[in-house]
Design goal:
Layout (H helix, E strand, L loop, with lengths): L2 H9 L2 E4 L2 E4 L2 E5 L5 H10 L3 E6 L31 H4 L16 H14 L6 E3 L1 E8 L3 H4 L2 E7 L5 E6 L1 E4 L4 E4 L13 E4 L13 E5 L3 H13 L2 E5 L17 H5 L9 H15 L24 H6 L3 E4 L2 E4 L4 E3 L4 E2 L4 E4 L3 E3 L11 E2 L2 E2 L15 E3 L4 E3 L2 H17 L7 H18 L9 E3 H12 L5 H7 L1 H9 L18 H6 L1 H6 L11 H27 L1
Parallel strand pairs: 3-4, 3-9, 4-5, 9-22, 11-18, 12-13, 12-18, 13-14, 23-24
Antiparallel strand pairs: 1-2, 6-7, 7-8, 10-19, 15-16, 16-17, 20-21
Length: 553
Amino acid sequence: MTSKSYYLSVLDPTVQLAGLKMTTKKIAVIGAGACGLPAIKCCLDEGLQPVCLERTYSIGGLWNYTEEVRPGQACVMKSTIINTSKEIMAFSDLPIPKEFPNYMHNQYVMKYFHFYADHFELKKYIQFGKEVEHLVKADDFEKSGKWKLIIKDVTSGKASEQIFDGVMVCTGHHAEPNLPSLPGLDVFQGKVVHTHDFKDSYEFVDKHVLVIGLGNSGGDVAVELGHIASQVWLSTRRGTWVLNRVSEYGLPADIVAIRRIFELLPLSLKNTMTQSKLQQRFDHDRYGLRPKHGIFHQHPFVNDELPNRILSGGVIIKPDIKEFTKTGVIFEDGTREDNLDAVVMATGYIFGFPFIDESVLNVEHNEVNLYKYMFPPDLSHGTMAVIGCFQPWGAIMPMAELQCRWVTRLLKGICKLPAQSKMRQDIKDKQTAMRQRYVTSHRHTIQVDAIPYMDEIASQVGCLPQIGKLLCSDTKLALKVFFGPCTPYQYRLHGPGAWSGARQAILTQWDRIEYPLRTRKCPPNPKQWNAFRFFVIASVLFFLFLAILIKFL
């Protein structure tokens, strides 16, 4: 097939080549957010025909902030800043512009999504205002592997039926707010709102507010209200370890932490070392926050300002709720607060995919059986995949992109899934490991670690970084890949989908990290620079020594 013929086949579902009629597979991409955009691009990369169905009128998914509360549609708060830095969260073949801040406000995240969509010309494949009401196997699924979608036009309300060769579900897993039944809440006379419906803090000025739940949303809400409310109480059952976005020498924390060399260390040692650093920043016991479990036995909680709000009295940490009264709350330690004006429920979400037929995929107690967190194991054809159904120690965007690269190669017929029995065993093994490591919680059912999970999917794609070969051919790059930050460009160095700009992107990643910080020229300070170099070199040598020691003991 010539290059011209190849691109014709992408744009036209049927082309005539060598006297044969060839049909391009039509793939439904449901959702145009952080997972849907790379799904469209990966379909195009593999010569598939993507049809992206987005029920709103914009790309971005939950990162598209709107004043309007939309049922079943998660959305960031007006003040939300992403918890992963730009070099860790970038898509693997388009670095985020150097001018963008390292930790981006949701407006910058949206700018990057538009930049990505425009750069690769993805928007023309998106049908806005199209909501998938039902996804079910086509009548001839056992033979063809095709899917039937009932699609509603949001404007007219009219529904139509379409058949697709494959489906990539990119809607996210936050289906509905989790609203636990708390004793007495039904008689409480104040305002009760879930973080799903929390847009900004203006209505809480000078109010007495209780925030229930110490996940990332709960922490963000408490901190924001701590500036303008009369008083904020933050209730937590277990406490939490508080991670900071800013690490040693002002570097983004994930740039320091997400490195291949650290994967050689046992979890117990990583727990001890990380907790020691966190305790040096502030004593979690003194602030009433230290949990029983280790830092890597929970979903990461990132908040730069919570210790300051606690220290200044704007936020008061309290234990779990015993019961509510008409005007206040009693905590399980017997203390109480009266004259509450409002309660914010930061109690997470119920995972689900309500439009998928239950015979295909069913979620119970926030657990979903998916091979590699992607594929229902009992289907006779692996032509449907769920993208982004995981909660990472890291950034979701490059992980979802790797998933898309694998799925599209499967849909094209280049790869195959293993036997159903092997897929079920893999699911069982992951669920067992999850229960052994993480605190029992409805949120700890789909946790993954950044590098191990990306490597696991990359090995399926065939794009796992070949560090051994690089040591022989490009030693400088090999050292940066192994000792430096594990940025997504590493997965474009080799194999299918290799990008010629990947090496340069890795070598210049520190320039993009530093650029938005260099807004004022400072006088030379050679001592500080030497201290930083000493810190980096000493850290690398220390962890290398530990890795060798562990290997041979």
